[in-house]
Amino acid sequence: MSELLNTLMQDARVWQGHRHVQTTQPAEPTGYQVLDNQLGGLGWPRGALSECLLDAPGIGELHLLLPLMQRMCAERKTVFWLNPPHTPYAPAMAREGVDLDQVVLIHTEDEGDFLWTLENCLRSPVTGLVMAWPGRLASREVRRLQLAAEAGCNVCVLFRERRYAEQNSPAALRLELEPGEQQDLKVNVLKRRGSWPGQRCSLAMAQRADLSFRETTRVVRGPWSGSTG
Amino acid sequence: MLWLYLHFPHLLLDHIRRSREDQGALVIVEGSGQKVIQACPEARAQGIRSGMRLKTAISLAPDLGMVRADETRESRILEDQARWLYRYAAHIVLVPPDGLLAEIGSLQKLYGGLPAVWQTVEQGLNERQLNAWIGIGHTPLAARLIARVGKGECTADKGHILRTLSQMPLLAAEFDEKASIRLQRLGLNTLGEVFDLPPNELARRLSPELLAHIQKIQGTRPDPRAPWQPPHSFRQQADFVQEIEHAQGLLFPLQRMLTELEEDLCWRQQDTDSLRLVLRHRHSEPTRLHIRTSGPEHRADNFLNLIRLRLEQHSLQAPVISLMLSVTRFLSREAPSGQDLLGETQDLNEAWHTLISRLQARLGEQALKQLSPQADHRPERAWSASEVMRKTAAPLKPAEDLPRRPLWLLKGPQALTETPVAWFAGPERISGGWWDGHRVHRDYYIAQLNSGQLAWIFRDAREGWFVHGWFG
């Protein structure tokens, strides 16, 4: 029994407020040093769910995952996009060095199919990363997905609305994403394994639209009468 | 030359019995539906005999399963058996309605003697749950006659074969009716007595055809037989006595058929990626299912899993009376290539195909897409979605020379409802499509909206403002 408890402690499955445990969980670096530092030097946990909570697309949420996507494609692992809200734009991904042969886009009709597909993708050894945009998810279903992710030891990122931040979730990592002032992405760690949450950091994301510093300061006169840059 | 003849005394009965789960009494009824012509052991145990009137049979066994004899169906089943026998012997002749002839003289060396050939065939028959009487003869007709009276022996000795034939009654010798009556009137009872008659007299007094028949049995006149060629496709059918109402009930016969498909594919050294299932109903149009795997496959288990998934998704629209599985597309089996020392690559390839096939079977082929950029300036046409394929080519280098584009493209442009708070880049004019009628004439800008989203917006020729993408 004590052995079981020890394992739980070592894997940081049991949250201990007074002790900061360095987890030994497998993880994939996010590719952003600032964020990795905030996450205890790890990154996206493998074999567990991660959640990104955001209000609207277009704030740099895909660029947050881009380094991981690039790495997975380079390792010839498949990247699944499950029910994305818009079309992933192929020319942009090709430009970013994502091997499109490894990207599979899946659309499911109903919730049952969604969960079934996600589970199957998570359990497969060919999967590198699964990005999924679920509609409503019951806590029980998130738990089921969590188990599937553990079985396959893959990275799974669920993109959900920010209002779910209040609800608790079995996901191992929960990040709240907000747009910043300088087209950057503010990341708020809501939950992570083995330590206190609440870390905040800001990731520069202006490069996603080629807005170099020089350009951002330059005022481009909008074609709208009376608009200012 | 040595010939082996397989006589299937009740082929249709065996065929139907082996795709049933329950073993109730079953009879085959002649075309007009009056008489029982074949009865299974269970039916025989209840007192039903072939030749009995159907009414009598039903009163003996009220829950009797009945199948009407059907010539086309029987010849199809016989052909299935020929395809199986073709694995063992090259020179096969179909003898409809219930016989198969194989030349085995040339096989003795391969199998290591005649007993080994006999045993191989017998074992195969057992595995296929078929009853057949085997006969061996030095001529096709001799083998046939011996098999049909059930006196087959594993011997290549011509003298012995002729002795067996001589003891055969005249009725078993398959002369035409007129000739056999005349021979009986001459006081002849066995085939041996006919053999002893002088040939000249036989031809003169009876008929030259009769002499030819006798000489073909004896082997003094050539009896050439054209070998049968197997078709280049696989087809199996299961017919049910009772209609099957639930998809679960189809899995049992399917399992046997798929195992035979696997054997067939192994024997061909080929794979397939597409199966066709036809479910026939009594009153409505047959249901056709097309099962695709994403890659070459031959294992029965994998096929069965895919079919099970498909049947779970689409419940049966009507009870099924027969099930046909056919494969016409064969792929050469790939030699394992690109394998590292631990064989990991091959495994992953296989796992990939398994996963994609499973997903496609449940979600439909349209649900899975792969994206690729297209050479067009118009954003809507600069990408395309295609069916998922495993590509083994090396990844392309990042195309740095492509223009900066957003990672999200909206399914269609959406009207811009607010004034952006900041403008960053633009205008970039995209104008084209005059050549195919989908004209695009737009100025694109990158701008930030109130919500903090970075948008790719454009103004069209009519001064309307639209969002076309998000810089995700």
TrEMBL record, chain A:
SUPFAM superfamilies: P-loop containing nucleoside triphosphate hydrolases
InterPro entries for the chain: ImuA_translesion, P-loop_NTPase, UCP037290
Protein name (Swiss-Prot/TrEMBL): SOS cell division inhibitor SulA
Automatic annotation (TrEMBL), chain B:
Coiled-coil annotated residue ranges, if any: none
Keyword terms: DNA damage
Superkingdom in the source lineage: Bacteria
Keyword set includes DNA damage: yes
A Pfam family hit: IMS
Name of the protein in question: DNA repair protein
UmuC domain sequence ranges: 25-147
Any one of the GO BP annotations: DNA repair
Keyword DNA damage: yes
Family: Belongs to the DNA polymerase type-Y family.
